[in-house]
Amino acid sequence: MTEIEDEAIRLIQSTPEGILQSELWKLLNIDSRKCSRVVKKLIDTDMVDRLEYKSDGIKTYLLKAKKRAIDPGLLMASGELLPCICCEEECSIQDCPYLMDWMYQLAIDEFSEENSES
Ligand code: SF4
Predict the structure, then answer these.
(1) Could you tell me the end-to-end alpha-carbon distance of the chain, in angstroms, rounded to an integer?
(2) Closest by alpha carbon to 21, among 53, 47, 68, 44?
(3) How many CB atoms lie within 10 A of CB 10?
(4) Is there an atom of ligand 1 within 6 Å of 87 CB?
(5) Domain of 55?
(6) What backbone phi and psi angles, to 5 degrees, belong to 110?
(7) Does the N terminus or the C terminus of the chain have fewer Cβ atoms within 10 A?
(8) What are the C-alpha distances in Å from 58 to residues 1, 7, 28, 52, 55?
(9) 59 CB contacts (<8 Å, ≥6 apart)?
(10) 11-41: pLDDT as tens digits
(11) pLDDT computed for residue 55 by the predictor
């Protein structure tokens, strides 16, 4: 993925209600033709949905990031589920001991996997 495609998908993903293609090329500081090529690539790689949209009587497209199923493996560390799932604590991410313990376990798992491969 090119830098501009990466920037485009980040912009689209950061606006859950979608972003107009006629606005996207301005935000990316590229011309509309180049934007069309970027959008086509994102559609072809199944990252974005494009819906017809009229803005002030002018036809454009509304671009929305596709929702993807989360790999459950990404929520686990040593068989422990990410503590944020079903957490009822008042959240303070910066100093949460549950999250720190889980991330520490995740780091140990990754270190163990790397060493077992070599
Ligand atoms: S960061 Fe800690 S307090 Fe916040 S939701 Fe996750 S586990 Fe709960």
Answers:
(1) 29
(2) 53
(3) 10
(4) yes
(5) 3-65
(6) -65, -40
(7) C
(8) 30, 25, 21, 10, 5
(9) 52, 53
(10) 999 998 999 999 999 999 999 999 999 999 9
(11) 79
Nearest protein Cα to ligand 1, atom 2? 96
By residue count, the chain amounts to: 118
Q: How far apart are CA 62 and CA 1, in angstroms?
A: 21
CB of 85 closer than 6 A to ligand 1? no
* Mean pLDDT, residues 68-83: 83
Task: Take atom 7 of ligand 1 and give the residue whose Cα is closest.
Answer: 84
Going by alpha carbons, the residue nearest to atom 4 of ligand 1 is 91
Distance 79 CA to ligand 1 centre (A): 18
Residues 41 and 89 in one domain: no
DSSP letter at 118 equals -
Residues 59 and 82 in one domain: no
Q: Which residues make beta-bridge pairs with 54?
A: 59
Do residues 59 and 87 share a domain?
Answer: no
